[in-house]
Amino acid sequence: QWAAQAVNYCASLLITPAIYILARRLLSPRIAFGVTLLFHTLPGLARCLSDALSEGLYLMGVAWSLAFTVHALQTGQRFYFFASGFACGLAYWARPEAAVLAGAVWLTLLLGSLRRSLILSAGWMLSSLVCFTLALGLTIAPYCYAIGGLTVKASGQHFLRVYNPVSYTHLTLP
Prior knowledge:
Blueprint: H1 2-26, H2 29-41, H3 43-50, H4 55-75, H5 79-94, H6 98-114, H7 122-147, H8 154-162
Helix pairs in contact: 1-2, 1-4, 4-5, 5-6, 5-7, 6-7
């Protein structure tokens, strides 16, 4: 158990620069320092990050993915979308809920490509979407292959079964 706690502790340390970078990009350096300090001193998060559960690794992946996404949108460098997809994929390894973050990035880039007032072109947005999706796919493909599907969680399997039209073929009507 101590090894799992050590991994979670290291993940909580690696969250720190991502939160600072994200807050600095969006707000200011002084506020970013306060946000980072507050993040590590809140009792709920401190308890969550010290347990031997998957939240620390998940939050680390999400924080870095968000930091890379914001940096890519502000600087126009596609490489950071690739890095964001990679970090999102690593977060997916810890918790399949990272698919929500991937959906948010996809939606941001798709809707951003439709806006004419943006400085970045629609072609740039779509190629960035490809970079993000490629990195995400390359990261989660070994995991999906190993488990034989998208998730092993019962809630995720139920969600996929409910919204998959093929799954209705086994139902019998009275």
